[in-house]
Amino acid sequence: MRWSGVLYDVGRAMGAWSANWRPDYAPELVRRELEIISGDLRATAVRLCARDPRRLAFAGACALDLGLDVWLCPELWNATPPRTLDYLEAAAPVAERLRRQAPDRVTLSLGNELTFFMRGIVPGRTHHRRTHVPQLRSILRERRHTPPLRAFLADAATVVRRSYHGPLTYCALPFEDPDWTLFDIVSVNHYRNPVTERGYAFVLDRLLATGKPVAVTELGFAASHDADNPEFLSTLNVTPLSFACFRLPGASRYIRPRVRAIHPRDEAAQARMLIDQLSDLDRRGVAGAFVMSFSFPLAPYDENPRHDIDATALSIVRSLRPGRHGTTYPDMPWEPKQAFHALAAFNRSAS
């Protein structure tokens, strides 16, 4: 695969007042983690995701300096189509400046799973409401989501092309059907689990038939016995009250969030399933794959299973409680999981 990488979050958020997924963000931390991704994980690319284009610009420049290909993913989740269009128009010059730094190593995404992450395609003001709207099944079955999605992406491509002149893609859900003639790379977030297994190969074959490079922009598993449990893709396994208290300023050093249900930790299962899927994608001729994700600080590791939120997180490093540092990398607030080492070995064998 040309692009063997990870999704690296520098500040995703559902909205301006929602919890930022990278509460530990600091420029020096970003630079050091990208060094590890390039040097120790042996990745060839990184998918950078954030709400703030300034963070994307900084992380993108660092990644390019380290020799990584950069997939830039500005994400203004839960906004209306006009506001999202304005946001992408403002983000496009950021991508163009990075592209000029490395003309053949930057790709820009126009969105991520917009049927659910943007307002206006499926009814509902929030992501949760849109994914649970009573008429959702009929909307998807009748393909009513396709025309508004295609219309938005066509407008977005036109707007972005005014200032950005590199490769474009869109990170689609498996059931979404964008007009791929607008894009240089066909991308899909494609998790392999008991729910998707039946149509897993069909989705890839359909996209490969376009004749364009295909990338799986999200795949991953949890570090538990039921590593491929689809519930982990949409639900954080934590009791709301304990999580709210944990998120209070200064409280995270003293309060440990509690899981809603104990899922026995099994890092070997995560590593095995991850390499199985990556090997399968490689055999099928997929051009790129990005593991979800490098880290997820909102789900810290704990020795006690009743507090081990990380067991159901898809990250390949386990974030430690605030104030603690790892042993493998004493300067980092996390410790590699078995999946980290398995992915590094996979990348070494492919180089």
Output the CATH topology: TIM Barrel
Specify the structural class: alpha/beta
Span of the ends, CA to CA: 10 Å
CATH C-level class is: Alpha Beta
Based on the coordinates given, report the CATH architecture: Alpha-Beta Barrel
Strand order of the largest sheet: 1-2-3-4-5-6-7-8
| H-E order | EHEHEHEHHHHEEHEHHEEEH
Keywords:
single chain, 351 residues, alpha/beta, TIM Barrel, eight-stranded parallel β-barrel, two-stranded antiparallel sheet, 11 helices, 10 strands, 15% strand, globular
Question: How would you describe this protein?
Answer:
- The chain has 351 residues and is of the alpha/beta class.
- The protein has a single domain (3-350), classed as TIM Barrel.
- It is 35% helix and 15% strand.
- The protein contains 11 helices and 10 strands.
- It has helices at 27-39, 53-65, 81-101, 114-117, 127-131, 136-141, 146-160, 200-208, 240-246, 267-284, 338-350; strands spanning 3-9, 45-50, 69-74, 106-112, 168-172, 186-189, 214-219, 288-291, 317-319, 334-336.
- The protein has an 8-stranded parallel β-barrel with strand order 1-2-3-4-5-6-7-8, surrounded by 5 helices.
- Helix 2 runs parallel beside helix 3 (81-101) and helix 3 packs across helix 7.
- It is globular.
- The chain starts with a strand and ends with a helix.
